[in-house]
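quick one: 1-O-phosphono-alpha-D-mannopyranose bound model?
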Amino acid sequence: MARKILCLFDVDGTLTKPRGSIERELEDFLQQKVKPLCSLGLIGGSDFKKIAEQMYGKDVVERYQYVFSENGLVWFKNGKEGDRQTIQKHVGEEKLQEFINYVLRYLSKVILPVKRGTFVEFRSGMLNISPIGRSCSQEEREAFEKYDKVFNVREKMIEALKAQFPNIGFTYAIGGQISFDVFPTGWDKTYSLRHLQEEGFDEIHFFGDKTFVGGNDYEIFSDSRTIGHTVINPEDTKAQLKKLFNL
Ligand code: M1P
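yep, here:
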């Protein structure tokens, strides 16, 4: 009997350029060549709105059997939304506010070449914190990424948060160019696997570009329930799929 396989893809850097849209050629390849051979799933740190933008619209939930946004805290199976989890329910308002207030105080002292707006984005299952601010332009985003490689703005901030809140039970993950995600420990991308437990897959292949320790693909990539594949960009994802399925 044929093995029941799921291919689960990270979005940014794996199927698309950072915050970009998937190339039509890759989307056609996945839908026409790969989907007949296995189930397809997406797992992103971003919220659903951003994933839909990058994947040609909200009907992405019809084209991919599983769509996990915010690491699986908000998720869809065959077009239908499953139960959501929220960070405020889990952590409690008081503790959460203490944390957010510290973040804002910390950021008020950070000097950067440019600073824009939306420094804390509140999502269902996580906070996304951006020292430059999420409303920066594409050019400013790329400049910040370069600046951060030299000055480690995000890493230093994460260290400060860990020191200030040693027992809060949060995990910090740098998944993109201008921000980092903060979520309760265990709510990394492996959170999505609990929704797949009863689905009876023989193999779950995970493809991601940030599979190194500290990257937001690391936990799911190294989990014993998945077969992990490290990719360097969307072209590499396609090449590795061709090899896996002899296409
Ligand atoms: O999917 C990777 C990351 O993409 C965005 O990061 P940034 O805006 O820093 O490039 C964010 O949506 C982030 O939450 C996500 O982990």
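The chain has a mean pLDDT of 96.
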